[in-house]
Write a structure and sequence with these properties.
- Helix content is 34%, strand content 21%.
- The radius of gyration is 24 Å and the shape is globular.
- The strands form two sheets. Strands 7, 8, 9, 10, 11, 12, 13, 14, 15 and 16 form a ten-stranded mixed sheet that branches.
- It has 15 helices and 16 strands.
- It folds into two domains: 178 residues, Rossmann fold (3-Layer(aba) Sandwich); 314 residues, 2-Layer Sandwich (Dihydrodipicolinate Reductase, domain 2).
- Helix 2 crosses helix 3 and helix 10 runs parallel beside helix 14.
- With 500 residues, it is α/β, with parallel strands linked by helices.
- Strand 5, helix 6 and strand 6 form a beta-alpha-beta unit.
- 6-O-phosphono-beta-D-glucopyranose binds next to loops.
- The site of 6-O-phosphono-beta-D-glucopyranose has 4 residues, from loops.
């Protein structure tokens, strides 16, 4: 990693006065500075439309770092970070303005070796304008290395995503287009592959002979905050399922890749995404629940339709639950349930793998509970395994017990798990795109999102209410009840032992 320190890097953020930059990017750079990973030849060019001086920009940025840095705030580190930052006023649609960028890529070392990264933290409608202007202003001819990092949503629909991809690949080359999905930078998402493929005990039972069903849950306490304009167009399907949750699904369900190289892993992920079933025309009315939050019962939080920049008659879903299958010999007959929503009663992202019941007539007084493995992604990271053991003091009564590996507890003070953005920013600078989404994946997931929305409209599927602060609409529990199952909560409970 140390070679990064000497390399001249010009990291340009378009949209540097937006929510994402304040909340995630600048705090991530602060953390990288604290870890000593930003060299003296690292420059962070923050592009915005407002006529701010550098000092004014830093003043605005400061409270965000104070609030969002995982290391806490330290004045000296903030000053060090500030010395890398240059705020530049630039109109993204004005070609001439891009000539200003040429003033910033001169470093003490040879400018031709400068790594240029352009991070587009702006609406997708600006992606191709920026790419064209960077190209036509001659900026992309100045150095050898130019990479572009894009936030989701990648385009406004499938057709737009395709044309965008073309423009970007033409300007930068496919291998220099980095489509970010910050879930890929999360520690436990990466750990899924290690758990699966480094342990015979797991990989051997990772199939329909042993597994009854798999559930992927991402529940959030927050509402749409100040992102009403974006969210009201996207909804939970495009905001969370199409990208983050399908990424998790693809890691859970993929076949073993032939190596850990990006292209091999992506191929296996794409195989899963190509084989999703249950999301077509008529099927979706039985397999998907769309929900929207109403005000909380105690009146402390607003209904979605009362949020800023949200239409008062909006039918955008803030909650979605769906059931699908992966059409492969490994997964035939195993339902995958996915659930995500805003303004739910807890913040928790996890994958539950419920094993089939153990058919046995040995324990006459009691049926053993189904074994359960939970991969905890956040806020706690770790692995929980629930199984059956003998109740002490009795002849053969069963007790349900668990083992709980808390990764974030063990490692927090020693290596402090890097937050997703820190990791991904660093990977983009290093030129490693393993943790970024491929175009094929993006295209496939757009295809599902569009067809779901199309049939939703055609079939006039209803949107059901749930109170803010609840665990979601009843219809979502019904979805599993019909199959004789229920949603698994990420709760660690130990049955109390009662000695006979
Ligand atoms: C973003 C979505 O991609 O992910 C947000 O746009 C969501 O709506 C966020 O809140 C969740 O990310 P995390 O890392 O907090 O789970």
């Amino acid at each position: 990693m140390n070679e990064l320190l000497d390399q001249p890097v010009l990291f340009t953020i378009f949209g540097s006065t937006g929510d994402l930059t304040f909340r995630k990017l600048i705090p991530a750079f602060y953390n990288l500075e604290k870890r000593g990973l930003l060299g003296k030849n690292f420059k962070l060019l923050c592009i915005g439309r407002r006529a701010w001086t550098n000092e004014e920009y830093l003043k605005v940025v400061r409270p965000w770092v104070e609030k969002n840095s995982r290391f806490g705030f330290n004045e000296e580190i903030f000053q060090r970070l500030s010395s890398h930052i240059e705020y530049v006023k630039l109109e993204m649609t004005v070609l001439d303005d891009y000539k200003k960028l040429a003033d910033y890529d001169r470093f003490e070392n040879n400018q031709s070796s400068t790594v240029n990264i352009y991070y587009l933290a702006v609406a997708p409608s600006y992606f191709s304008i920026i790419a064209d202007n960077l190209k036509n202003s001659g900026q992309l001819d100045r150095c050898a290395i130019h990479r572009v990092v894009l936030e989701k949503p990648f385009g406004e629909d499938l057709a737009h995503a395709r044309s965008l991809n073309e423009v970007l690949c033409k300007a930068f080359g496919e291998s220099n287009v980095y489509r970010i999905d910050h879930y890929l930078g999360k520690e436990m998402i990466q750990n899924i592959m290690t758990l699966r493929f480094a342990n015979r005990v797991f990989e051997g039972i990772w199939n329909n002979r042993f597994i009854d069903n798999i559930q992927i849950t991402a529940s959030e306490i927050v509402g749409v905050e100040n992102r009403g304009t974006y969210y009201d167009n996207a909804g939970a399907l495009k905001d969370m399922v199409q990208n983050h949750l399908f990424q998790i699904l693809s890691f859970i369900a993929m076949e073993k890749p032939s190596s850990l190289k990006a292209e091999d892993i992506r191929q296996r992920q794409s195989d899963v995404l190509e084989n999703l079933r249950g999301l077509g025309s008529d099927e979706i009315k039985d397999n998907i629940v769309f929900g929207q939050y109403t005000a909380s019962t105690d009146g402390s939080s607003l209904a979605y339709r009362q949020e800023e920049n949200v239409a008062s008659d909006s039918s955008t879903e803030t909650f979605i639950a769906l059931k699908l299958e992966v059409d492969s010999p490994r997964w035939k007959g195993v339902p995958f349930y996915i659930k995500t929503g805003k303004r739910l009663d807890e913040r928790s992202t996890y994958v539950s793998i419920q094993f089939k019941p153990q058919a046995t007539d040995l324990f006459v007084s009691q049926e053993p509970q189904q074994d359960l493995l939970i991969i905890k992604i956040q806020p706690d990271e770790g692995v929980y395994f629930r199984f059956n053991a003998k109740k002490p003091g009795t002849m053969n009564d069963i007790s349900t017990v668990f083992m709980n590996f808390c990764q974030s507890c063990i490692y927090e003070n020693r290596i402090n798990t890097p937050e997703a953005y820190e990791r991904l920013l660093l990977e983009a600078v290093k030129g490693d795109d393993t943790l970024f989404a491929s175009w094929h994946q993006v295209e496939l997931t757009w295809h599902y999102a569009e067809s779901i929305n199309l049939y939703r409209k055609k079939l006039a599927l209803p949107i059901v209410d749930y109170a803010a602060g609840s665990d979601g609409p009843d219809a979502s529990s019904e979805l599993l009840k019909r199959d004789g199952r229920e949603w698994i909560r990420n709760e660690i409970t130990e049955e109390s032992y009662t000695e006979n």
